[in-house]
Amino acid sequence: MNLEIDFCLNGSEIRLSIKPWETALDVLRNQSGLTGVKEGCGIGECGACTIIIDGKAVNSCLILAAQLDGRKVETVEGLEVDGKMHFIQQAFLDKGAVQCGFCTPGMLMSAKALLDKVENPSTDKIVEAMTGNLCRCAGYVQILEAVREATCMKAPLNKDDVTNS
Amino acid sequence: MRGHFNYLRPDCVTECLDMLDQYGNETAILAGGTDVMISLRTGVKKPRIILDISRLPETRQVEPYGETVRVGSTLTYSELIDHPVIRQEFPALCAAMGCVGSLQIRNVGTLGGNIANSSPAADSIPPMMLRDAEIIIQKKGSSRIQKLEKLIVGAYSNTLEPNELITGIILTKIKKGYRESYQRIGRRKSLSIARINAAILGRLNDSGVIEDARISVGSVAPSPMRMTNVESHLKGRKPELKTILEASRMIAQEIIDLVGVRHSTEYKQPAIAGLALKCLEDVFLDSSVN
Questions:
Q1: A52-77 average pLDDT score
Q2: pLDDT in tens, B147-179
C-alpha cells in the first residue's frame, strides 16, 4: 500500500509515492537521490541525517516519510544556489571543519537552522545547536569555529540588507 | 528490522478516538516518534497501524486557567521551552526538558510522549510530579483525569488502555515564594539517558523555616517517586547546611532501602545524595541569602 505525500523539498513542490513504513531518510536518499542525508546511527544519536523541517533541525531517521506531507523540507543539497556555496559551507571550508565529511551535511543543517532563527548566537547557543551532531574525526573545535565564522559572515550581510531597503 | 504497517493521521481528536476505538489493540501512537521509531526499528513494537497524532489541533495549546496551566500533549519540548508561560511558571520542568536528547530530539519529542513512554529515567516526570500533574485521558465517548503518580505504575508501564489518548496535562502554577530545581547525572551532557535525576520544590516562611518541601527522584527505581518521608522531615526546620546534608543522605538511604543493595550501590548512594544536595541548596540555601 502506497501513500502519496506532497511537500516542499529545497524550494520545489514535489509529490512522492511512499511506503508507510519508510523513514524520511530512506525516501530522501533512495527516491529523491539526496545522498547528502547520511545514515549514521539510525536511532537519533549522531545527527548525520539532520534535515530542516519547517525551520527546525530534526533527525530524518526518526521521522516517517509520511510525516513530511505538507511540510517545508531542507537538505544540504538545497544550500548551494546557482553554483554558489552557502556562506556556512564556505565557513566550513575556510576553517578546515571537514575531515572525512560524513557528519558535515548534518552539521551544516544544524548550523543553518540556528542561523536562520538567531541573528547573532552566543557560543553557548551555538554549542547547544550543535550537540546533537557527532563528529568521529573529532574536529569539533574547527566546526564550532566555522559556525562562529558563519555568524560573522551573516551579520554584515544583514546590515547591507537593512541599508539597501 | 522494521515491519510493515499502515499510517493514519487524524485531523481532530474525535477522529483520532474513533480510530483508537476501532484499531487500538493493533496501533502504536506516534507523537514525536523519538521512542516509537526506535522500537519499530528494533522490532520491539510491531503494530499494524501507526497513528500520527502530532497534528491534532486540540493537543497543541498552552492554556492558563486560574491556578493551573493546561498543556497540550503533543507540544514539543522546544515549543514548550520557548513558550513564555511555561518558562515563567515551570523553571524546573524547562530545565528538565532542556536535558532531553539533543535539539533535534527536543524539536520533535513531546511531553505527552514522555508520559506515555513511562521511562524510569524520563526527564520531565519528576518536575511535573511536584506540580500535582494530572493527565487528561480521552477515549471515544468519555474522558478521565488521573494523577501522574497513579498513571505510571512501573518501568515503561502505565494505566493507559489501547483505546485511550493523552490529550493534555494539568500543572499547578508556581506559587509566591516557591523555588525549584532540577538536576541530573548522565554519562555525558547531551544525548544521554539520566542515570539519576531529581526535582525539588520548596518554600521558606517569613522566619526562614521550611514550610513546604517536595522531592521527586527518577531513574533509580522502576518509576520516578516522591520522597514523602524526607519531605515531612524537612518541614518546620531551618535550612541549615547540616539539615540539608542530612536530608540528602536520607533520600539516598531511602532509595537504597527500597531497591536493595546492588553492585552499583557504592556509586549510586553518594551520587544520589550529592545530586539531592545540589537541588536542596538551589532551593533552600540560595533563597535564605536573599
A1: 98
A2: 999 999 999 999 999 999 999 999 999 999 999
Name the closest residue on chain A to residue B190, using Cα atoms. A131
CATH number of B6-52: 3.30.43
Mean pLDDT rounded to a whole number for chain B: 94
Is B191 in contact with A66 (Cβ distance < 8 A)?
A: no
Q: Which ranges of B197-264 would DSSP assign to H, the alpha helix?
A: 228-234, 241-259
Count A/B contacts: CB-CB distance under 8 Å: 80
* Domain at B195-289, CATH from 3.40.50.300, 3.30.390.50, 3.40.50.880, 3.10.620.30: 3.30.390.50
Residue A163, pLDDT above cutoff 70: no
Q: Are B129 and B199 in contact (CB under 8 A)?
A: yes
CA B285 – CA B213 distance, rounded (Å): 13
Partner-chain contact A67 B33, CB within 8 Å: yes
Q: Domain boundaries in chain B?
A: 6-52, 61-172, 195-289
For A130, the closest chain B residue by CA position comes to B103
- pLDDT the model gives residue B36: 96
Task: Summarize the confidence of residues B104-122 as an average pLDDT.
Answer: 96
CATH entry 1.10.150.120 includes domain A87-164: yes
Q: What angle do CA B235, B241, B243 make, to 5 degrees?
A: 35
Enter the C-alpha cell of residue B22: 476501532
Is B75 part of the contact surface with chain A (CB cutoff 8 Å)?
no
- Which stretch of A32-36, B184-188, B208-212 has the lowest confidence by average pLDDT? B184-188
Domain range B61-172, CATH architecture: 2-Layer Sandwich (3.30)
- Mark out chain A residues that contact chain B at CB-CB < 8 A: 1, 3, 19-21, 23, 42-45, 47, 50, 56-59, 61-64, 66-67, 69, 110, 128-129, 131-133
| A3-76, CATH topology level | Ubiquitin-like (UB roll) (3.10.20)
pLDDT for the residue numbered B194: 87
What is the C-alpha separation between B194 and B186, in angstroms, rounded? 5
